[in-house]
Design goal:
alpha/beta; Molybdenum Cofactor Biosythetic Enzyme, Chain A; Molybdopterin biosynthesis moea protein, domain 2; Molybdopterin biosynthesis moeA protein, domain 3; 4 domains; six-stranded mixed beta sheet; 19% helix; 30% strand; elongated; binds adenosine monophosphate; binds magnesium ion
Length: 433
């Protein structure tokens, strides 16, 4: 991969860097300054349009044709020359033929004449205007309409108005969405050059973790973080490398971190990064890499490790995100710090999802000095205003609060208590894509 900078070179640009007390905005800034498109973002592969959904476009798609290829009618009605519209109350035209989509009228249309035309049919020669059929009285082969109902050029789609031949229809770095598939198909293109998927390794650490299928002894929990990470990473369209649950054993831990660093562009772990952790996670991260241990002024999600780790022999390195262990904290820190970083590494040019506003229906306890990410459900009140309420208990281990929610309620760093009816920022979990 493209060589990573040192963390030190990145943080020295920040005036008040304190890993023990970092604002969310600072952490985002450091991550952003540290990561860069990896070498894989320059590698591409060609896939069928059916396999292109969610992938990242590797090259601009230059339109080989005009879409539409000719001026055509936007309505079912009658096509004619706009100059035939009279200055009097009503205009009469003589119908001389019919034009359908895929079967155009090929003759010339003179002043005072018109052609029955269907949506999508090529505008006959001499025509620049369509009057919709419902505005017209028909009497044999004469049509009549009120002259003020239509102006020259109405209801006509221009050649190339959607896509112009020779121009970029889509730009490299775009994530391919359903509309893009249709747009690519509208150019007659069936294969797409996409960037190679980013390789992302992930694993859980903690001796209390049990895997599905194992008995659950007292004090143990099933490993859920690997599954939320699996879901979030799958949505991002990366290549997954699941290293399972890693026991708190320095040999196994060292081996897993090294292996992940050697094959992955990024490695994401959960657990073992908080203060007073008895396990080896932090020690091995330190040993293998250039890693900072942060305390971020946020809730949930305070502890986090960030930097890079290197395979000791091959020197191949990967960006490291050591996320906290609490299940909600994993998701919050992923969406805040990891998501955009992985997209950037993958050469994606898109930005973070927009923050919207909603009125909270209840008071929310908050103290200044940290950013909080509460889990909310959006709704609309009787006036049509967007409202939000909290999904019950907000502990960082209460994964149900995420599962029931459809948005984060983002309470900014300096914000104080919030009263019912106050406006708060919300970020939707799902985008309309
Ligand atoms: P840690 O960050 O390791 O101190 O973990 C914080 C809390 O998260 C503890 O209650 C852990 O049991 C829990 N936890 C850590 N990893 C996982 C995991 N993979 N799945 C579910 N819970 C976890
Ligand atoms: Mg732990």
């Amino acid at each position: 991969m493209t060589s990573l900078p040192t963390l030190n070179s990145v943080v020295t640009c920040l005036s008040d860097y304190d890993p023990e007390s970092l604002r969310v905005s600072q952490a985002i800034q450091i991550v952003q300054d540290f990561v860069r498109p990896t070498a894989q973002a320059l590698e591409s592969e060609t896939v069928s349009i059916y396999d292109a959904l969610g992938r990242v476009l590797a090259q601009d798609i230059i339109s080989p044709i005009n879409v539409p290829s000719a001026d055509n009618s936007a309505m079912d009605g009658y096509a004619f020359a706009g100059s035939s519209i009279t200055n009097t109350d009503s205009t009469s035209l003589t119908m001389i033929g019919k034009g359908f989509a895929g079967n155009a009228f090929t003759g010339q249309v003179a002043a005072g004449q018109c052609v029955r035309i269907m949506t999508g049919a090529v505008m006959p020669q001499g025509c620049d205007t369509t009057i919709p059929q419902e505005m017209v009285e028909v009497d044999g082969d004469v049509i009549r309409f009120r002259s003020n109902l239509v102006r020259a050029g109405d209801n006509r789609r221009l050649k190339g108005e959607d896509l112009k031949e020779g121009l970029a229809a889509l730009k490299a770095g775009k994530i391919i969405r359903p509309a893009d598939l249709g747009l690519i198909a509208s150019l007659g293109i069936g294969t797409v050059s996409v960037k190679r998927r980013l390789r992302v390794g992930f694993f859980s650490t903690g001796d209390e973790l049990r895997s599905i299928g194992q008995p659950l002894e007292d004090g143990c929990v099933y490993d859920s973080n690997r599954y939320t990470l699996f879901g979030m990473l799958t949505r991002l369209g990366v290549e997954l490398h699941d290293f399972g649950v890693v026991r708190d054993d320095p040999v196994v831990m060292r081996e897993t971190f090294s292996q992940a660093a050697s094959v992955c562009d990024a490695v994401i772990t959960s657990g073992g990064v908080s203060v007073g952790e008895a396990d080896y996670t932090k020690q091995i991260m330190r040993e293998l890499g250039d890693v900072s241990f942060w305390k971020i002024a946020m809730r949930p999600g305070r502890p986090m490790a960030f930097g890079s780790i290197k395979h000791p022999k091959s020197n191949h390195s990967a960006v490291l995100f050591g996320l906290p262990g609490n299940p909600v904290a994993v998701m919050v820190t992923f969406y805040q710090f990891v998501r955009n970083a992985l997209l950037c590494m993958n050469g994606v040019t898109e930005t973070a999802p927009p923050m919207m506003q909603a009125k909270t229906v209840e008071a929310i306890r908050k103290r200044p000095g940290r950013t909080e990410f509460q889990r909310g459900i959006l709704s609309t009140d009787e006036t049509g205003a967007r409202t939000v309420r909290i999904t019950g208990a907000q502990g960082s281990g209460v994964l149900r609060s995420m599962s029931e929610a459809d948005c984060f309620i983002v309470l900014e760093h300096d914000q104080d208590q919030i009263k019912a009816g106050d406006t708060v920022g919300v970020v939707l979990f799902e985008g309309l894509v």
